[in-house]
């Protein structure tokens, strides 16, 4: 019983961290129907931006409550810069090309970013320790133990998702985003600046990825150049599971994946070595019986 | 239209800049040490390196490459091979057997290449061995620990040499695993041990050999779990292991997984030592979360206690390589020196042509090579091509650094 | 998904005519630039004699001492300069080639700290030439008449022989050993620039279209000649063990990519886990290698992969578009994980399956050298035949009833169904055929490498295969082969840049998609 509770908590923490990346995937896909494989790398460069700030710019003796906001800003700044450059230089010129061209470009950007960081960032050929800029102890409740960083992630991540949801529902730009997602051509005719809306979508996704990167770094205590890839695949899976284009769906999908991975490792056939397999089996089953995901809308004929 | 040509030109420029930096990188390796003082009239001989130099294992691969570079430069300074200048040619295998086999074929075709230092991954070596077997090109691995590479599938019961031209300077899994097991049970008094691996050959084989020895010694393996090599969240696996109440965790993985694993074990209140082999014997293990009392059993004497070992470390530091020598640099250095010394003997009698007979002669010289002056002490090969160096040292994390607690010969029982 | 909407390209308007002497000066730009190219080629390029010998092809050459020594990139520059002077249409491609050659060598020489005036002069000449060429009014497309069969056959023979030479020269450009020729990378890249320029010149004069029209008319003949040329490669300079190893790898991946091309390019079903089929074929053949002869093992590999293709394809009945992509990605990951964990004892797990014997025909093992040919050349031949077979399958399917059904599904599935196409069946058949080809390739892969392990089949391999299909040109017959060759030859030739290799690969993917999103071989 204690083990089950602990596994559920483990799953929640993992889900919270994946969820922040999944939001970026779901937003971009919702708007321009592009699986932005490089989004995981946006998350990764955010982590390295924070690491750089902490290792080379901040004074050594700085209380964590002062350092943490600075690192968040740094991570967000780097993530957003990279995302904007990516959209402007790599994706925008391909707006009219067939849909696989941007996908291949996204894969190219992903490889490029990983390699640039690996080759040019000092020490990035191996995992780097991330500064401990949060309470480095555990919350203990009975036999249940969870890092305070995990508590932070589980608390912050749904809040950020809710804020994003509110923004997309209520703000002017959010309305424009929904209009573009619905029908880009009509939206353009209605006077919406397509380029601006798409860029804003990338920026929003990058902000969340940057924050997610700092949460990830302080929770696991390490970052490496491949962290964006594996977590990116999970995040994309989460976005699809929840129903791509849906913000609540992405969070739900992420928690679901965290839970399945955690519980399957404990209880399912094959143990931890097959935990990924169960995640993907779940995905396939859900898509077979509910192809639009948990909260997605069924896509009908599209021009 | 303007912007389009502008974009094209800036693209061209970008390529130019990247190529320029590439050229800078390349030019580093071509400044010929102090070759001016040696007679290099007979030409150039090449020591090939095959290692993973990009991707997740690049820290290890680049350490291997730099250490071979160091050995080659030292040999050139000392005119170790009379009449020849030595060069290193490093090929990235991306830890992919297909890429490694192509690189090996490239070396085998080239008469100037005298030998290969590599590969790091046993899986890559399995693809290289049949490719170069008929060409007799000598291969010395600094990192393959799969016993089957030298002694065949029946390595424990009916060992049989697989390839005349394949050697290694690193201890095999069936030594490393049991040595660690003996230390944990006999010296530390551990009774219930859990195992975590990452699905890579080295981890799996090491864990299997470890298990055999643990059972022989009367202790229990309470569980064996496998994590994904790209994972960073091990809380689920560790929770499962915690419920099995072990008093030690053996990890077959290298530090990039074992470090975070140790941190997350602590976070979950699982306060038992993590024990591993040469893969975790690296300062990064501690930086990434290794705790006081965690254990590593590594091949060879402590490097700073051997004069030859500390000489290697000193020389490496002087070269200012951007990367550290990593867990396998010293082995690569020893391997390169075996090739350099042997080629000196072969070329003493006749000029090098790269003919199969000469390559066979070189293999014989390598087989006969023996010294106790390597960076890791004894360097030499037994009748299967395995290292004769069966000395192991156990280190523990003590006040934030690895400290050696015990050295000893491994004796098969 | 709309897969092939051709990109809109705008032609610039012609430059306005200028009066008087200015016009004369402008008209003189092109000849002046051509002369400058010739001069630049013969000026010294390197300021010092570099350690390890002269910079490629005697960059410090004194022309008047030894004019016959104009070789390598200087010869290429001279040829391009002459082309620009004599052939008006050749100016633009020649300019691009000159700029590429100059940039590559300048970058290298700057890196070595030995840059001399030859490079900058040539670069300026190239830029001037480009400017002049861009200012010229667009010319009508050149049309060459199709000659009688006898002449056409001769022309085709010569053209394919030239192609063989070009491939061999590209592979061997810069030599094989980086340690003995540190400038090999520069020589290769510069040669690539020259090759592109030559292709551009031929295209500008309609020669390429002429040849392709002729080969279209004499299909059987040209296929036979092309196949013959491909089989001749081991007899050229590129016939080293190394290039045969690389080329047979390309063959394996090209056959797999052709299979993927059926699924993605023709039927429009995005698959992100395709390498699993290669793996299934390889593991099947590896398990049977000691029990049955190769043809049986290969057949078993193909059939098993085909069965799995149907299984993986079955969700297509319900799942569409990018959702299907993620389902296939999931299947790929499940396969990878299962192979890593040695499922059912079939994959060898972490230790892979070692010791797969080489293909053995009539007591002749395929890995042994024969006569003057290196060991791998017979694997190369078998992979050429396999690729040729796969191309034939693709070409025939494209024109079949099923092929038309695929194209209809690709364009619009709902409309296709409304028109009476049995979409479900067609989609499953696409996966079946594609996976079977991949499984066959996997069997060759297993025997060629001698070992099969899970690590050869990870997600990045699926990505590479998909990139090969898209780069080559989706749905086209030679596309996947061109793409796969590029994606395997480039990294091998870029070994010079060890650390920057993958980075350049990523950059190349972005740039090719940026400037040629429809792929190198376009279907339109």
Task: List the keywords.
heterotrimer, A: about 300 residues, mainly alpha, ABC transporter involved in vitamin B12 uptake, BtuC, two-stranded antiparallel ribbon, 4 strands, about 70% helix, B: about 425 residues, alpha/beta, 5-stranded parallel β-sheet, globular, disordered N terminus
Explained architecture:
The complex is a heterotrimer of chains A (303), B (413) and C (524). In chain A, strands 1-4 form a two-stranded antiparallel sheet. Chain A has a two-stranded antiparallel sheet with strand order 2-3. Chain A contains 11 helices and 4 strands. In chain A, 72% of the residues lie in helices and 4% in strands. Chain A has 303 residues and is mostly helical. Chain A has a single domain, classed as ABC transporter involved in vitamin B12 uptake, BtuC (Orthogonal Bundle). Chain B is of the alpha/beta class and 413 residues long. In chain B, 44% of the residues lie in helices and 20% in strands. In chain B, strand 13 and strand 14 (401-409) form a beta hairpin. The radius of gyration of chain B is 22 Å and the shape is globular. Chain B starts with a helix and ends with a strand. The model of chain B is unreliable at 1-35 (pLDDT under 50). Chain C has a two-stranded antiparallel ribbon. Chain C has 2 domains: 23-223, no CATH class; 248-487, no CATH class. Chain C is mainly alpha-helical. In chain C, a hairpin with a 2-residue loop joins strand 1 and strand 2. Chains in contact: A-B, A-C, B-C. At the B-C interface, helix 1, strand 2, helix 3, helix 4 and helix 7 of B face helix 3, helix 6, helix 9 and helix 19 of C.
Fill in the CATH topology of chain A.
ABC transporter involved in vitamin B12 uptake, BtuC
| Overall geometry of chain A | globular
Low-confidence stretches of chain C: 1-6, 56-65
- Helix-residue proportion of chain C: 55-70%
Biggest sheet strand order of chain C reads 1-2
Gross morphology of chain C: globular
**Percent range for β-strand residues of chain A:** under 5%
Termini Cα gap of chain A = 52 Å
Query: Helix share of residues of chain A?
Result: over 70%
Mean pLDDT of chain A comes to 90
Mean pLDDT level of chain C:
83
Poorly predicted parts of chain A = none
Q: Find the structural class of chain A using helix and strand composition.
A: mainly alpha
**Largest sheet features of chain C:** 2 strands, antiparallel
CATH class of chain A: Mainly Alpha
Question: How many domains in all of chain A?
Answer: 1
How many structural units, i.e. domains of chain C? 2
The largest sheet of chain A is: 2 strands, antiparallel
Number of strands of chain A: 4
Separation of the first and last Cα atoms of chain C: 18 Å
């Amino acid at each position: 019983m204690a083990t089950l509770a602990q596994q559920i908590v483990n799953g929640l923490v993992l889900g919270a961290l994946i969820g922040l990346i999944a939001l970026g995937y779901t937003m971009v896909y919702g708007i321009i129907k592009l699986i932005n494989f490089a989004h995981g790398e946006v998350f990764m460069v955010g982590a390295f931006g924070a690491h750089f700030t902490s290792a080379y710019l901040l004074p050594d003796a700085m209380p964590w409550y002062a350092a943490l906001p600075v690192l968040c800003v740094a991570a967000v700044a780097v993530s957003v810069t990279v995302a904007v450059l990516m959209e402007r230089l790599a994706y925008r010129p391909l707006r009219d090309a067939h849909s696989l061209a941007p996908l291949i470009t996204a894969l190219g950007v992903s490889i490029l970013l990983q390699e640039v960081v690996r080759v040019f960032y000092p020490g990035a050929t191996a995992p780097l320790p991330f500064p401990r800029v949060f309470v480095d102890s555990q919350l203990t409740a009975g036999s249940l133990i969870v890092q305070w960083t995990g508590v932070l992630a589980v608390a912050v991540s749904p809040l950020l998702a809710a804020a994003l949801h509110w923004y997309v529902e209520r703000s002017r730009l959010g309305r424009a985003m929904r209009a573009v997602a619905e029908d880009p051509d009509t939206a353009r005719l209605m006077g919406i600046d397509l380029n601006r809306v798409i860029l804003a979508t990338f920026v929003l996704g990058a902000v969340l990825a940057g924050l997610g990167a700092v949460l990830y770094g302080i929770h696991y205590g390490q970052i490496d150049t491949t962290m964006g890839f594996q977590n990116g695949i999970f995040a994309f899976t989460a976005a699809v599971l929840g129903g791509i284009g849906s913000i609540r769906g992405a969070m739900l999908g992420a928690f679901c994946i965290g839970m399945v991975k955690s519980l399957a490792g404990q209880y399912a056939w094959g143990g931890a070595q097959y935990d990924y397999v169960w995640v993907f089996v779940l995905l396939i089953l859900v898509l077979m019986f509910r192809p639009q995901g948990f909260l997605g809308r069924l896509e009908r004929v599209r021009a | 239209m303007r912007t389009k040509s502008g974009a094209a030109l800036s693209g061209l420029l970008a390529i130019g800049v990247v190529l320029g930096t590439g050229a800078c990188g390349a030019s580093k390796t071509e400044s010929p040490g102090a070759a001016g003082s040696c007679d290099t009239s007979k030409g150039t001989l090449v020591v090939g390196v095959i290692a993973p130099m990009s991707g997740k294992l690049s820290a290890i691969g680049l350490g291997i490459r730099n250490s071979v570079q160091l050995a080659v430069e030292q040999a050139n300074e000392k005119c170790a091979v009379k009449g020849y200048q030595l060069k290193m040619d490093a090929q990235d295998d991306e830890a992919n057997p297909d890429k490694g086999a192509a690189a090996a074929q490239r070396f085998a075709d080239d008469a100037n290449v005298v030998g290969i230092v590599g590969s790091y991954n046993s899986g890559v070596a399995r693809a290289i061995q049949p490719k170069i077997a008929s060409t007799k090109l000598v291969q010395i691995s600094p990192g393959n620990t799969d016993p089957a590479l030298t002694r065949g599938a029946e390595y424990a019961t009916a060992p049989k040499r697989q390839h005349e031209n394949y050697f290694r300077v690193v201890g095999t899994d069936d030594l490393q695993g049991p040595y660690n097991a003996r230390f944990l049970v006999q010296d530390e008094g551990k009774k219930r041990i859990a195992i975590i691996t990452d699905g890579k050959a080295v981890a799996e084989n090491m864990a299997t050999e470890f298990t055999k020895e643990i059972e022989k010694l009367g202790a229990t393996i309470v569980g064996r779990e496998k994590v994904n090599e790209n994972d960073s969240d091990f809380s689920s696996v560790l929770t499962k292991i915690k419920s099995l109440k072990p008093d030690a965790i053996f990890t077959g993985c290298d530090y990039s997984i074992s470090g975070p694993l140790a941190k997350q074990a602590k976070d979950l209140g699982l306060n038992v030592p993590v024990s591993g082999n040469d893969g975790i014997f690296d300062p990064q293990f501690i930086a990434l979360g290794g705790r006081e009392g965690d254990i590593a059993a590594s091949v060879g004497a402590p490097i700073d206690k051997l004069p030859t070992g500390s000489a290697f470390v000193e020389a490496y530091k002087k070269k200012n390589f951007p990367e550290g020598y990593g867990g396998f640099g010293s082995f690569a250095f020893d391997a390169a020196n075996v090739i350099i010394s042997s080629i000196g003997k072969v070329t003493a009698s006749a000029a090098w042509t790269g003919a199969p007979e000469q390559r066979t002669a070189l293999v014989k010289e390598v087989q006969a090579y023996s010294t106790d002056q390597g960076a890791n002490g004894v360097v030499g090969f037994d009748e299967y091509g395995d290292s004769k160096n069966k000395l192991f040292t156990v280190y523990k994390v003590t006040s934030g650094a690895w400290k050696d607690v015990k050295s000893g010969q491994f004796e098969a029982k | 998904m709309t897969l092939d909407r051709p990109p809109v390209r705008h032609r610039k308007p012609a430059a306005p005519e200028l009066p008087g002497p200015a016009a004369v000066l402008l008209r003189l730009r092109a000849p002046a630039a051509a002369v400058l190219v010739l001069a630049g080629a013969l000026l010294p390029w390197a300021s010092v004699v570099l350690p390890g010998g002269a910079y490629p092809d005697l960059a410090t050459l004194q022309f008047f001492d030894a004019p016959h020594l104009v070789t390598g990139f200087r010869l290429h520059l001279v040829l391009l300069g002459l082309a620009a002077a004599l052939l008006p249409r050749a100016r633009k491609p020649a300019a691009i080639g000159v700029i590429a050659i100059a940039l590559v060598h300048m970058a290298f020489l700057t890196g070595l700290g030995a840059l001399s005036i030859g490079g900058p002069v040539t670069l300026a000449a190239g830029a001037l030439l480009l400017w002049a060429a861009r200012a010229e009014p667009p010319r009508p497309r050149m049309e060459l008449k199709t000659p009688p069969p006898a002449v056409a056959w001769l022309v085709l023979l010569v053209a394919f022989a030239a192609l063989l030479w070009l491939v061999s020269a590209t592979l061997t450009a810069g030599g094989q050993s980086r340690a003995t020729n540190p400038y090999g990378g520069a020589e290769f890249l510069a040669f690539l620039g020259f090759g592109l320029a030559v292709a551009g010149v031929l295209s500008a004069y309609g020669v390429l279209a002429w040849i392709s029209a002729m080969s279209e008319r004499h299909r059987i003949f040209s296929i036979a000649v092309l196949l013959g040329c491909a089989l001749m490669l081991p007899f050229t300079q590129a016939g080293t063990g190394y290039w045969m190893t690389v080329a047979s790898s390309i063959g394996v991946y090209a056959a797999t990519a052709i299979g993927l091309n059926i699924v993605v390019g023709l039927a429009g079903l995005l698959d992100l886990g395709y390498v699993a089929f290669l793996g299934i074929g390889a593991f099947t053949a590896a398990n049977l290698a000691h029990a049955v002869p190769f043809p049986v093992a290969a057949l078993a590999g193909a059939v098993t992969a085909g069965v799995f293709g149907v299984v993986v394809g079955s969700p297509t009945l319900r799942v569409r578009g990018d959702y299907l992509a993620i389902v296939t990605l999931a299947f790929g990951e499940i396969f990878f994980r299962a192979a890593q964990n040695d499922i059912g004892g079939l994959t060898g797990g972490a230790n892979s399956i070692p010791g797969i014997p080489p293909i053995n025909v009539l007591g002749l093992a395929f890995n042994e050298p024969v006569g003057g040919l290196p060991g791998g050349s017979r694997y190369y031949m078998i992979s050429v035949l396999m690729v040729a077979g796969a191309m034939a399958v693709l070409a025939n399917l494209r024109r079949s009833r099923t092929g038309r059904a695929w194209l209809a599904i690709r364009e619009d599935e709902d409309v296709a169904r409304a028109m009476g196409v049995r979409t479900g069946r067609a989609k499953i058949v696409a996966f079946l055929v594609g996976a079977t080809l991949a499984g066959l390739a996997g069997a060759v892969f297993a025997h060629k490498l001698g070992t099969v392990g899970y690590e050869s089949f990870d997600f990045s391999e699926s990505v590479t295969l998909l990139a090969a299909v898209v780069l080559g040109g989706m749905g086209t017959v030679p596309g996947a082969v061109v793409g796969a060759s590029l994606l395997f030859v480039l990294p091998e030739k870029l070994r010079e840049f060890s650390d920057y290799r993958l980075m350049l690969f990523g950059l190349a993917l972005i740039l090719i998609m940026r400037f040629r999103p429809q792929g190198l071989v376009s279907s339109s």
